[in-house]
Amino acid sequence: KWLLTSEKLQAVKLWITAGPREKFTAAELLKQRLDSGGGLLVMLREGGELKYDTNINFLLEELGKYYAVIRNVYHKYFHPKEALVSSGVLNREISRAAGLIDEENTGNDLQCLRALTFVYPYGATLNVMKPTGFFCLAVLGSCHMFSDQYLDKEENSRIMDVVFQWLTADSIPLNQTDAEDPEITDYTMLPDTGSLSERLRVCLREADENPPDFTSLFDMSLLKLHTNALPSVLEQELPPALFCVQVLQPAFRDLPPPKPDLSDLDETFPSEKVRLAQLSNKCEFLDGSNTVIVSSLSGF
Protein backbone atom coordinates (compact mmCIF):
# COMPACT_ATOMS: atom_id res chain seq x y z
CA LYS A 1 0.00 0.00 0.00
CA TRP A 2 1.44 3.35 -1.04
CA LEU A 3 0.74 6.61 0.73
CA LEU A 4 -1.89 8.94 -0.69
CA THR A 5 -0.56 12.36 -1.52
CA SER A 6 -2.04 15.40 -3.18
CA GLU A 7 0.34 15.03 -6.13
CA LYS A 8 -0.85 11.50 -6.87
CA LEU A 9 -4.50 12.46 -6.54
CA GLN A 10 -4.12 15.39 -8.92
CA ALA A 11 -2.90 13.09 -11.68
CA VAL A 12 -5.87 10.74 -11.25
CA LYS A 13 -9.17 11.53 -12.93
CA LEU A 14 -11.22 8.92 -11.07
CA TRP A 15 -10.36 7.35 -7.72
CA ILE A 16 -11.95 3.94 -7.00
CA THR A 17 -11.79 2.13 -3.67
CA ALA A 18 -13.38 -1.32 -3.53
CA GLY A 19 -14.04 -2.75 -0.09
CA PRO A 20 -11.31 -1.08 1.96
CA ARG A 21 -9.96 -3.24 4.79
CA GLU A 22 -7.56 -0.77 6.40
CA LYS A 23 -7.99 2.65 7.87
CA PHE A 24 -7.22 5.69 5.77
CA THR A 25 -4.51 7.89 7.19
CA ALA A 26 -5.10 10.64 4.63
CA ALA A 27 -8.87 10.85 4.47
CA GLU A 28 -8.68 14.64 4.42
CA LEU A 29 -6.93 14.41 1.03
CA LEU A 30 -9.92 12.55 -0.37
CA LYS A 31 -12.19 15.26 0.97
CA GLN A 32 -10.02 17.86 -0.70
CA ARG A 33 -10.35 15.89 -3.92
CA LEU A 34 -14.13 16.01 -3.63
CA ASP A 35 -14.01 19.72 -2.91
CA SER A 36 -11.91 20.27 -6.01
CA GLY A 37 -14.44 18.40 -8.20
CA GLY A 38 -12.63 15.09 -8.64
CA GLY A 39 -14.51 11.84 -9.12
CA LEU A 40 -14.59 9.21 -6.39
CA LEU A 41 -16.23 5.77 -6.42
CA VAL A 42 -16.54 3.96 -3.08
CA MET A 43 -17.69 0.33 -3.12
CA LEU A 44 -18.61 -1.35 0.14
CA ARG A 45 -20.03 -4.71 1.17
CA GLU A 46 -22.26 -6.18 3.86
CA GLY A 47 -21.05 -5.44 7.35
CA GLY A 48 -19.56 -2.11 6.38
CA GLU A 49 -17.04 -0.29 8.52
CA LEU A 50 -17.47 -2.37 11.67
CA LYS A 51 -16.77 -5.69 9.97
CA TYR A 52 -13.74 -4.68 7.90
CA ASP A 53 -12.09 -2.26 10.35
CA THR A 54 -11.93 0.79 8.14
CA ASN A 55 -12.70 4.47 8.65
CA ILE A 56 -14.37 5.18 5.33
CA ASN A 57 -17.35 6.70 7.15
CA PHE A 58 -15.23 9.71 8.03
CA LEU A 59 -15.31 10.44 4.33
CA LEU A 60 -18.93 9.44 3.78
CA GLU A 61 -20.13 11.42 6.81
CA GLU A 62 -21.65 8.49 8.73
CA LEU A 63 -24.02 6.97 6.25
CA GLY A 64 -25.44 4.71 8.96
CA LYS A 65 -25.65 1.01 9.73
CA TYR A 66 -24.97 -1.51 7.02
CA TYR A 67 -27.60 -4.20 6.82
CA ALA A 68 -27.31 -7.11 4.42
CA VAL A 69 -29.67 -6.98 1.45
CA ILE A 70 -31.41 -10.27 0.69
CA ARG A 71 -34.38 -11.25 -1.42
CA ASN A 72 -37.54 -12.66 0.13
CA VAL A 73 -38.41 -15.00 -2.77
CA TYR A 74 -36.33 -17.46 -4.76
CA HIS A 75 -35.84 -16.19 -8.30
CA LYS A 76 -33.11 -17.02 -10.81
CA TYR A 77 -30.15 -17.01 -8.40
CA PHE A 78 -29.39 -19.58 -5.74
CA HIS A 79 -28.03 -17.58 -2.80
CA PRO A 80 -30.52 -15.33 -0.98
CA LYS A 81 -27.98 -12.50 -0.87
CA GLU A 82 -27.78 -12.46 -4.68
CA ALA A 83 -30.66 -10.03 -4.90
CA LEU A 84 -32.18 -9.42 -8.33
CA VAL A 85 -33.48 -5.85 -8.48
CA SER A 86 -35.89 -5.12 -11.29
CA SER A 87 -37.18 -1.69 -10.19
CA GLY A 88 -34.19 -0.04 -8.56
CA VAL A 89 -33.42 3.01 -10.73
CA LEU A 90 -34.84 6.16 -9.15
CA ASN A 91 -33.46 8.73 -11.56
CA ARG A 92 -34.78 8.41 -15.09
CA GLU A 93 -31.63 9.92 -16.59
CA ILE A 94 -29.70 6.79 -15.64
CA SER A 95 -31.96 4.63 -17.81
CA ARG A 96 -31.74 7.13 -20.65
CA ALA A 97 -27.94 7.25 -20.45
CA ALA A 98 -27.84 3.46 -20.57
CA GLY A 99 -29.72 3.60 -23.89
CA LEU A 100 -32.75 1.65 -22.71
CA ILE A 101 -35.35 4.42 -23.07
CA ASP A 102 -35.63 7.33 -25.46
CA GLU A 103 -36.72 10.92 -25.04
CA GLU A 104 -40.38 10.08 -25.72
CA ASN A 105 -40.62 7.55 -22.86
CA THR A 106 -38.68 9.62 -20.33
CA GLY A 107 -41.91 10.79 -18.72
CA ASN A 108 -43.14 7.23 -18.13
CA ASP A 109 -42.18 6.63 -14.50
CA LEU A 110 -43.00 2.92 -14.50
CA GLN A 111 -40.95 2.23 -17.61
CA CYS A 112 -38.01 4.20 -16.21
CA LEU A 113 -38.04 2.20 -12.99
CA ARG A 114 -38.11 -1.16 -14.77
CA ALA A 115 -35.71 -0.28 -17.56
CA LEU A 116 -32.59 -1.49 -15.74
CA THR A 117 -32.49 -4.89 -14.05
CA PHE A 118 -29.33 -5.65 -12.12
CA VAL A 119 -27.92 -8.14 -9.64
CA TYR A 120 -26.97 -6.79 -6.21
CA PRO A 121 -24.86 -9.59 -4.68
CA TYR A 122 -23.76 -9.58 -1.05
CA GLY A 123 -24.55 -5.90 -0.72
CA ALA A 124 -25.34 -3.55 2.14
CA THR A 125 -28.02 -0.94 2.65
CA LEU A 126 -27.16 2.76 2.49
CA ASN A 127 -28.79 5.62 4.37
CA VAL A 128 -28.37 8.51 1.97
CA MET A 129 -28.89 12.12 3.02
CA LYS A 130 -28.87 15.27 0.96
CA PRO A 131 -25.28 16.56 0.71
CA THR A 132 -24.31 20.00 1.85
CA GLY A 133 -22.25 20.69 -1.25
CA PHE A 134 -21.81 19.57 -4.84
CA PHE A 135 -19.61 16.50 -4.93
CA CYS A 136 -18.95 13.96 -7.62
CA LEU A 137 -19.22 10.96 -5.30
CA ALA A 138 -20.72 7.55 -6.06
CA VAL A 139 -21.22 4.98 -3.30
CA LEU A 140 -21.94 1.35 -4.19
CA GLY A 141 -22.95 -1.04 -1.44
CA SER A 142 -21.71 -4.16 -3.24
CA CYS A 143 -18.12 -4.82 -4.28
CA HIS A 144 -19.15 -7.96 -6.15
CA MET A 145 -21.54 -6.12 -8.45
CA PHE A 146 -18.76 -5.05 -10.84
CA SER A 147 -16.64 -8.19 -10.41
CA ASP A 148 -15.97 -10.65 -13.23
CA GLN A 149 -18.54 -13.09 -11.88
CA TYR A 150 -21.46 -10.65 -11.94
CA LEU A 151 -20.42 -8.03 -14.50
CA ASP A 152 -22.09 -9.87 -17.38
CA LYS A 153 -25.21 -10.67 -15.36
CA GLU A 154 -28.36 -8.74 -16.27
CA GLU A 155 -27.55 -5.01 -16.81
CA ASN A 156 -24.58 -4.67 -14.44
CA SER A 157 -22.19 -3.72 -17.22
CA ARG A 158 -24.51 -0.93 -18.39
CA ILE A 159 -24.70 0.47 -14.87
CA MET A 160 -20.91 0.41 -14.59
CA ASP A 161 -20.56 2.33 -17.86
CA VAL A 162 -23.09 4.93 -16.74
CA VAL A 163 -21.41 5.39 -13.34
CA PHE A 164 -17.96 5.81 -14.88
CA GLN A 165 -19.33 8.19 -17.47
CA TRP A 166 -21.05 10.28 -14.81
CA LEU A 167 -17.91 10.43 -12.66
CA THR A 168 -15.48 11.28 -15.46
CA ALA A 169 -17.60 13.56 -17.63
CA ASP A 170 -20.46 16.01 -17.31
CA SER A 171 -22.56 14.49 -20.07
CA ILE A 172 -25.21 12.96 -17.78
CA PRO A 173 -27.26 15.65 -16.03
CA LEU A 174 -29.47 13.98 -13.41
CA ASN A 175 -33.16 14.74 -13.23
CA GLN A 176 -33.66 17.25 -10.44
CA THR A 177 -37.22 16.16 -9.66
CA ASP A 178 -36.17 12.57 -9.06
CA ALA A 179 -33.09 13.69 -7.13
CA GLU A 180 -34.96 16.06 -4.80
CA ASP A 181 -37.98 13.85 -4.09
CA PRO A 182 -37.25 10.18 -4.84
CA GLU A 183 -39.97 7.61 -4.25
CA ILE A 184 -38.34 5.29 -1.71
CA THR A 185 -40.26 2.75 0.31
CA ASP A 186 -39.43 1.72 3.86
CA TYR A 187 -37.21 -1.21 4.70
CA THR A 188 -38.76 -4.65 4.88
CA MET A 189 -36.97 -6.12 7.87
CA LEU A 190 -36.53 -9.89 8.00
CA PRO A 191 -35.56 -12.05 11.00
CA ASP A 192 -32.09 -13.48 11.44
CA THR A 193 -32.55 -16.80 9.68
CA GLY A 194 -29.10 -18.00 10.74
CA SER A 195 -29.83 -17.85 14.47
CA LEU A 196 -33.41 -19.02 14.05
CA SER A 197 -32.26 -22.14 12.21
CA GLU A 198 -30.44 -23.26 15.37
CA ARG A 199 -33.58 -22.85 17.52
CA LEU A 200 -36.28 -24.78 15.73
CA ARG A 201 -39.83 -24.56 17.02
CA VAL A 202 -42.90 -26.57 16.14
CA CYS A 203 -45.63 -24.69 14.35
CA LEU A 204 -48.80 -24.87 16.45
CA ARG A 205 -52.09 -25.13 14.61
CA GLU A 206 -55.04 -23.16 15.82
CA ALA A 207 -57.93 -25.28 17.05
CA ASP A 208 -61.22 -25.21 15.20
CA GLU A 209 -64.18 -23.59 16.87
CA ASN A 210 -66.69 -25.91 18.50
CA PRO A 211 -70.01 -26.19 16.64
CA PRO A 212 -73.24 -25.15 18.40
CA ASP A 213 -74.53 -28.75 18.31
CA PHE A 214 -71.99 -30.85 20.21
CA THR A 215 -73.66 -34.10 19.12
CA SER A 216 -72.34 -33.56 15.60
CA LEU A 217 -68.84 -34.23 16.93
CA PHE A 218 -69.66 -37.90 17.49
CA ASP A 219 -69.11 -40.07 14.44
CA MET A 220 -71.07 -43.29 14.99
CA SER A 221 -70.26 -44.69 11.56
CA LEU A 222 -66.65 -45.50 12.40
CA LEU A 223 -67.30 -48.86 14.09
CA LYS A 224 -70.44 -50.82 13.20
CA LEU A 225 -71.51 -54.14 11.69
CA HIS A 226 -73.44 -54.03 8.47
CA THR A 227 -73.97 -55.96 5.27
CA ASN A 228 -73.56 -53.11 2.85
CA ALA A 229 -70.76 -54.93 1.03
CA LEU A 230 -72.90 -58.06 0.47
CA PRO A 231 -75.44 -58.35 -2.35
CA SER A 232 -79.08 -58.54 -1.38
CA VAL A 233 -79.78 -61.60 -3.60
CA LEU A 234 -77.37 -64.49 -4.18
CA GLU A 235 -76.36 -64.83 -7.78
CA GLN A 236 -75.49 -68.14 -9.42
CA GLU A 237 -72.35 -67.96 -11.48
CA LEU A 238 -72.00 -71.71 -12.28
CA PRO A 239 -73.95 -73.36 -15.13
CA PRO A 240 -77.12 -75.09 -13.78
CA ALA A 241 -76.76 -78.19 -16.00
CA LEU A 242 -73.64 -79.42 -14.24
CA PHE A 243 -74.05 -78.07 -10.74
CA CYS A 244 -77.04 -77.61 -8.52
CA VAL A 245 -77.29 -74.89 -6.01
CA GLN A 246 -77.73 -76.31 -2.54
CA VAL A 247 -78.14 -74.57 0.76
CA LEU A 248 -76.42 -76.39 3.61
CA GLN A 249 -77.54 -76.22 7.16
CA PRO A 250 -75.15 -74.41 9.41
CA ALA A 251 -72.94 -76.66 11.51
CA PHE A 252 -72.59 -75.28 14.98
CA ARG A 253 -69.97 -76.45 17.44
CA ASP A 254 -71.05 -78.63 20.36
CA LEU A 255 -70.70 -77.35 23.82
CA PRO A 256 -67.76 -78.72 25.79
CA PRO A 257 -68.55 -81.35 28.48
CA PRO A 258 -69.02 -80.10 32.00
CA LYS A 259 -66.02 -80.14 34.25
CA PRO A 260 -65.95 -83.01 36.86
CA ASP A 261 -66.57 -82.22 40.46
CA LEU A 262 -63.63 -82.03 42.74
CA SER A 263 -63.08 -85.34 44.58
CA ASP A 264 -60.32 -87.30 46.32
CA LEU A 265 -58.76 -89.30 43.51
CA ASP A 266 -56.54 -91.22 45.92
CA GLU A 267 -59.58 -92.81 47.52
CA THR A 268 -61.38 -93.49 44.26
CA PHE A 269 -58.53 -94.92 42.19
CA PRO A 270 -55.93 -96.36 44.60
CA SER A 271 -53.40 -99.01 43.60
CA GLU A 272 -53.27 -102.57 45.01
CA LYS A 273 -50.42 -101.84 47.37
CA VAL A 274 -52.18 -98.80 48.71
CA ARG A 275 -55.37 -100.73 49.36
CA LEU A 276 -53.46 -103.56 51.13
CA ALA A 277 -51.71 -101.03 53.28
CA GLN A 278 -55.00 -99.43 54.20
CA LEU A 279 -56.52 -102.81 55.05
CA SER A 280 -53.56 -103.91 57.16
CA ASN A 281 -53.84 -100.77 59.19
CA LYS A 282 -57.36 -101.78 60.15
CA CYS A 283 -56.30 -105.26 61.52
CA GLU A 284 -54.90 -106.10 64.99
CA PHE A 285 -52.29 -108.75 65.93
CA LEU A 286 -53.38 -111.28 68.66
CA ASP A 287 -50.95 -111.63 71.63
CA GLY A 288 -47.97 -110.83 69.45
CA SER A 289 -48.44 -114.03 67.42
CA ASN A 290 -47.72 -114.13 63.79
CA THR A 291 -51.29 -114.50 62.71
CA VAL A 292 -52.09 -113.45 59.18
CA ILE A 293 -55.60 -112.33 58.69
CA VAL A 294 -56.85 -113.06 55.26
CA SER A 295 -59.65 -110.92 54.10
CA SER A 296 -61.61 -110.92 51.00
CA LEU A 297 -59.63 -109.31 48.26
CA SER A 298 -62.19 -109.73 45.63
CA GLY A 299 -61.66 -106.19 44.51
CA PHE A 300 -57.97 -106.74 43.63
UniProtKB/TrEMBL annotation:
Domain IFT52 GIFT span(s) in chain numbering: 4-132, 137-180
GO cellular component terms, alphabetically, are:
centriole; cilium; intraciliary transport particle B
Q: Name one GO biological process term.
A: intraciliary transport
Ranges of residues in domain IFT52 central: 196-236
Positions the record marks as coiled coil are none
Identify this protein by name: Intraflagellar transport 52 homolog (Chlamydomonas)
- Species, as recorded: Cyprinus carpio
